[in-house]
Design brief:
The protein is 89% helix and 0% strand. The protein is mainly α and 178 residues long. It is rod-shaped.
């Protein structure tokens, strides 16, 4: 005796009893009828008509998908053009800002260079004025030191001159008195 599918032989008495019970009660009849009904619907007389209906519905779906894809493709192209235009505008703005920044940077560099030059010029003038002040102070010190010397020399010359005059007068008086 073979198993339900008909290929495996039974090995125990218990399995034989199950087989006998299923044949008597008709437990296997319901699933078999259901399967046969489903196969009949698929393989039945309407198969050609079902195939035509399925093909037309799938064609309609494919056409709809193709149209949707075409619209999406056009929308994507439009969006890409818009984004390209935005990118070009942004690049133009960036270039303008970079030029403006470069010009302002150059102007600031020129102003800074001019300020440095003015500062250096003022620094040189200040150093020159300080040196001149130092020289003037030295001259003043020298003048102050020379004034007493000149005064002393004048007094000495005056004394020497007075002495000479006095000696000359005395010599004259002596010569006259003689």
């Amino acid at each position: 005796m073979y198993h339900i599918c008909g290929k495996i032989p039974f090995s125990t008495d218990c399995e034989q009893e199950v087989l006998i019970m299923t044949e008597q009660t008709g437990i296997m009849d319901k699933p078999k009828k259901l399967w046969d009904g489903a196969m009949k619907m698929v393989k039945g007389e309407d198969t050609h008509q079902l195939m035509e209906q399925f093909t037309s519905e799938m064609t309609l779906v494919a056409e709809g998908l193709c149209e949707d894809q075409g619209r999406l493709h056009q929308e994507v192209e439009r969006m890409m053009r818009e984004e390209d235009q935005r990118i070009q505008k942004l690049e133009a703005r960036i270039n303008l800002l970079e030029r403006t920044l470069d010009e302002e940077r150059s102007a600031h560099d020129r102003e800074l260079t001019e300020a440095r030059n003015r500062f250096m010029s003022l620094e040189k003038k200040t150093e020159k004025a300080e040196r001149e002040n130092a020289r003037n102070e030295e001259r003043e010190k020298e003048k102050k030191q020379k004034k007493p010397l000149i005064r002393d020399l004048t007094v000495l010359i005056g004394i020497a001159g007075g002495s000479w005059v006095l000696v000359t007068l005395l010599n004259l008086v002596r010569d006259l008195l003689r």
